[in-house]
Amino acid sequence: MPATSCTPWPTSRNTVNSLSPVADSTKSILLVAQLSPPSTLVAARRVAGLTKYWSKSGYRVTVLTSAISGEGPIEGAAEVVRTRDLMASSLNWRRRHFAALGGHVAQSYRRPSRLEAVVVPDLGLLGWIPFALPRAVRLARARVFDCVITSSPPQSTHLIGNVLSKRGLPWIAELRDGWTFDPPRRPWPLVTQRRLDVSLEHRVLQGADALVGVTTPIAHDLRDRFGGSAQVITNGFDPEELGEAEPEDSLLDPTRHSLVYTGRMAVAGRDPTPLFNALRILRDESPELAGRLELVFAGPIADEERGVLTSADLKDSVRILGALDRPRALKLQRAADSLLVLGVGTSNRSVATGKLFEYLAAGRPILVLGEETEAARIVASANAGLAVPAEEPKQIADALRRLAEGRGPNGADRELVARYAYPRIADQYAELIDEVCERRCR
């Protein structure tokens, strides 16, 4: 059984990429996440924000992550342990796809591999867990950890927490997307796969000391099916990072209303077609008004998206900037006239994409396509924008008209927005960590 804070601290520890000394009074956290900085994907930003502000609160954070995210330290982490991952190896013929997805190479990315419809619960079970799980066990034997936190997707990450929990380590399972509830992937093609996925979810998550959902629908589902009091701990934004981002308007047309989208679309199933049909409606009904509006897309583009985004009849209204580095993307958000969240119809209502919170911090009006999503609820509660059905071009056109005419909300509740700053989120999480650790030590 590994040592926890219920036992005396050892007199010495082995370290990996050690960056700071450890005070005897601090709690030590093992954070397990496949994606982490320097990856530009949204999951890595959560790891960055929590690690940075936990360390500022005196916690010692060890991050166990995948080599697919890149190399180097993570701000605030006392240790960074990067394991092998078949996704980063020569066995993965789609390595350049992943690099394009992250905006690291100038080419289009493609939709996820067809193998994702085969392996239950996800490809991480074959690609990363065989390397990460043994490393986690060795770390738990060599270090004193008060708590392990596993963050999914991939859902197979929670197998690591389940194993360490059985060895006596308090465990918090964090779900950024639902597992069998409202999953972002397509349904399993076979009944046997669906049954296996449900069974695996139940057997793994019921062993957690606490469950965390990053949105209210995910947390409510966890409470309903697993009992207890699953907590909502949302994604957020780093106020220090945004404080350095002065508006960047050199990429925008100052004579037009710029509706900006930053990020990826196809990888999450977002389809801009209803939006473009809405723009066509607006152009037919009010050509002069439509001419004052431009849709700006900044981020890696999938092969199938490029044809839609470059439609000949919309070439004067749609611009593709391609992948931008993170500081410039943040500056672009702050310079936009309004910001766009693309929904996925009536499915995936639990989704509140990580960039939503950066949008809130930018202080620009937000248009959410998907009025029944968690993103729409958050935006409405902050009086930060508009929400319309994701698949209704006519209603989307009406929303575009309001924005172009300057009739969109612009009075976001700054105090509510401030709740999504990572310093506050890290403090909220710290209370749960303390509670879980004390419960195990009784």
Supply the key terms.
442 residues; alpha/beta; Rossmann fold; seven-stranded parallel sheet; six-stranded parallel sheet; 17 helices
For this structure, the CATH topology of the largest domain is: Rossmann fold
Q: Which sequence of strands runs across the widest sheet?
A: 3-2-1-4-5-6-7
Largest sheet: 7 strands, parallel
N-to-C order of helices and strands: EHEEHHHEHEHEHEHEHHEHEHEHEHEHHH
For CATH, the homologous superfamily of the largest domain is named as Glycogen Phosphorylase B
Q: What's the gyration radius in Å?
A: 22 Å
Runs with pLDDT <50, length 5+? Answer: 7-25, 100-109
Name the average pLDDT.
86
What proportion strand? 5-15%
State the separation between the terminal residues, measured CA to CA.
17 Å
Oligomer: single chain
Number of domains: 2
Structural class: alpha/beta
Class of the largest domain, according to the CATH hierarchy? Answer: Alpha Beta
Structure summary, number of beta strands: 13
* Known CATH architecture of the largest domain: 3-Layer(aba) Sandwich
Instruction: Classify the helix fraction into a percent range.
Output: 25-40%
Basic shape = globular
Q: Please report the number of helical segments.
A: 17
Structural overview:
The protein is of the alpha/beta class and 442 residues long. It has 2 domains: 28-236 and 422-441, Glycogen Phosphorylase B (Rossmann fold), CATH 3.40.50; 240-418, Rossmann fold. It is 38% helix and 14% strand. The strands form 2 sheets. Strands 3-2-1-4-5-6-7 form a 7-stranded parallel sheet, sandwiched between helices. It has a 6-stranded parallel sheet with strand order 10-9-8-11-12-13, with helices on both faces. α9 (273-285) packs across α15 (393-404). The longest helix has 20 residues, at 422-441. The chain is globular, with a radius of gyration of 22 Å. The two termini are 17 Å apart. The model is unreliable at 7-25 and 100-109 (pLDDT under 50).
